[in-house]
């Protein structure tokens, strides 16, 4: 299995997720209220980077749901949890850059906190795949951290054989973190219509010091009007 995974995901920052999920504790289900407001029950939804199923568990209650992730460990945990609670969703081990689905397979796609773990060329490839697997006027629900976030910084990360990328850092775990600007997100989704775009800032205090968590959250629709 290890050799097969290395063949499918040769990049260390993708392989690192299996090890990461060996230590991540289940954080409980996450709210999908904003997603339900847009979609009819029974819609086909892809959770792109579904991890251990925090969103997928809730999506499966209302929609025909599929979770895709590079971590086989996370997907196994997610599937067990869903089955235990009486819900079903397809679980697929794959990279967002090469999604194993036919064109127009989904009416909506959830991508929360995932594109920030990819390099520039990988993010662009993922967006091309999003456009391909979404049906006409399909929706993307997006979330990622911004450059003003308290965790911004560290050792700059670079794709193999290339120069370090701006606002992209390598953690000790081997996982990369990219921090976005609003302009960059809108450029990445240039082929999409913007339905919602929010900048969310929350103040955190630690040992008497004030810190900011900055997050962007958006809803895009495939194809500009």
CATH architecture: 3-Layer(aba) Sandwich
| Broad CATH class | Alpha Beta
Q: What is the strand tally?
A: 10
What's the Cα radius of gyration?
A: 17 Å
Low-confidence stretches: none
The main sheet comes to: 7 strands, mixed
| Beta-strand residue percentage | 25-35%
CATH superfamily: Vaccinia Virus protein VP39
In DSSP terms (H or I, runs of 4 or more residues), the helix count works out at 7
* Mean of pLDDT: 93
Q: Total domains, how many?
A: 1
SSE topology string:
HHHEHEHEEHEEEEHEE
- The outline comes out as globular
Keywords:
7 helices; 7-stranded mixed β-sheet; 225 residues; 3-stranded antiparallel β-sheet; Rossmann fold; alpha/beta; single chain
